[in-house]
Specification:
With 440 residues, the chain is mainly α. It is 76% helix and 0% strand. The C terminus is likely disordered. One of its GO terms (cellular component) is membrane.
Length: 440
């Protein structure tokens, strides 16, 4: 369920890029930076909701809340197919961002809630890598669907523009996926319909070792303060901003970027699909290697190195080297491993339910800020080369690598410090402390 819904939400993001080469800008009268603001305004809605979505995820039944938001998102999605002006498109995009805000944080909470702490360097990291990798599947599927609509429109004219048909299709797909989640996704182990009463008790007992409980609806101010005082929190937020600026730009402009290499708009729909395969490969390999070694940050940074090399190719190769620049774009997709590695760290290593939801909220606020800025790095005046955007991507990938290295060194130091404190203090654990919603 996570894989399908996560893929659909990314498919919606890439659909804007497809629409940009299928007549969207001409049909609704976009000029100058209007298209870039359509990319950014989605995350203004996301950011607006992120201030309260962490609290709602804590207070409301987790599975049902995610499902209802998904269904509402699917209902609003087709409205974009009906827009006739820039102002109408802005309004729809904003509300889509509001409804989308619960999906990724909710998925991270559910993933952390059902797995064991000692699995984190193994299974949980791989799990998050798997459902995030469906961004890549979505890009492959979306490119083929968009090409099908575009090609069909050339052979037999549609009653509506092909980019409008894409959004109608996505809306129906999202509503169906939301309905499946509403029926099958439990709020926690205690109401998992696929388990017997005895197995539900065993499922709760299984996660005792995590010392994080299975969700706590009481807001604890001291845990919120602890989250804000933790340097790791701000390393995570900074990394998220630096890596989602390239994400926001590439997600909305990759079709136009491929056209700038010298390919036709229809070719760009097909030639964008291998980038999805690169992302799938990078995320799954990162998850498997992390599972074997336990070093999520190191292998997450490895994918970012691949992305950095791709950005260097984009910047350094001359305009006429279109195949080389296309390969460079494909390689940039390796950067996705960095954020998936850090997301798994936050979901698994942050004890205390209020602290976890606070850190996740800050994580996604950073995500929004970066994606708001990202489309603005692609300036109309720089077309068709978009050199300033390419240089920005290169620099931010390099900064992200430094941040991940500092994060790795900091966490190693903290682990050694806590181990020494436990050995020196000779502390005794109280029975049942695992479900007391503590942070230490």
């Amino acid at each position: 369920m996570f894989c399908i819904v996560y893929g659909i939400q990314f498919l919606y993001k890439t659909s804007m890029s497809y629409a940009s080469v299928l007549g969207l800008q001409k049909d609704i009268g976009l000029h100058g930076q209007d298209y870039s603001w359509l990319g950014s305004v989605f995350y203004f809605g996301y950011l607006q909701m992120e201030f309260c979505t962490g609290r709602l995820l804590q207070r409301l039944p987790l599975g049902k809340y995610i499902a209802i938001c998904t269904i509402l998102w699917g209902i609003v999605n087709p409205c974009f197919a009906a827009v006739q002006s820039y102002s109408g498109a802005i309004a729809v995009r904003f509300f889509l961002g509001v409804l989308k805000a619960s999906i990724s944080p909710g998925f991270a909470l559910v993933t952390a809630q059902v797995g064991l702490r000692f699995e984190i360097a193994a299974k949980q990291s791989a799990r998050i890598g798997i459902w995030v990798s469906y961004n890549g599947f979505a890009q492959i599927f979306g490119g083929l669907v968009a090409y099908g609509f575009a090609h069909g429109n050339t052979t037999s004219k549609f009653a509506i523009a092909p980019w409008r048909a894409i959004f109608l299709f996505l809306g129906l797909l999202t509503i169906v996926a939301g309905g499946v989640i509403l029926i099958f996704l439990p709020d926690n182990q205690l109401n998992a319909r696929c388990l017997s009463k005895e197995d539900r008790i065993l499922a709760v007992e299984r996660v005792r070792v995590n010392q994080q409980g299975i969700g706590n609806k009481k807001f604890k101010l001291h845990q919120c303060r602890e989250a804000f005082a933790d340097p790791f929190t701000w390393m995570v937020v900074f990394l998220n901003i630096t890596q989602t600026i390239p994400n926001g730009g590439l997600t909305n402009f990759f079709s136009q970027l491929i056209v700038s290499f010298g390919f036709t708009p229809q070719q760009s729909l097909l030639y964008g699909t291998p980038a999805g395969a690169v992302e799938i490969f990078a995320l799954i390999i990162r998850g498997l290697l992390s599972q074997r070694s336990g070093h999520r940050l190191l292998f997450g940074g490895g994918g970012l190195v691949v992305g950095l090399i791709g950005a260097i190719l984009l910047v350094a190769l001359p305009v006429e080297t279109r195949v080389g620049r296309l390969i460079g774009y494909y390689m940039t997709q390796g950067f996705a491993t960095a954020l998936s590695a850090v997301l798994s760290l936050v979901a698994s290593n942050t004890a205390g339910y209020t602290k976890k939801t606070t850190v996740l909220a800050l994580f996604w606020i950073g995500y929004c800020v970066g994606n708001i800025i990202g489309p603005q790095t692609f300036q109309v005046k720089d077309a068709p080369r978009f050199a300033s955007a390419e240089i920005t991507i290169l620099v931010l990938f390099a900064i992200g690598l430094v941040d991940m290295l500092l994060m790795y060194l900091y966490l190693r130091r903290q682990n050694k410090k806590k181990e020494q404190e436990r050995l020196q203090s000779g502390c005794v654990e109280n029975e049942g402390h695992e479900f007391l919603n503590l942070t230490n």
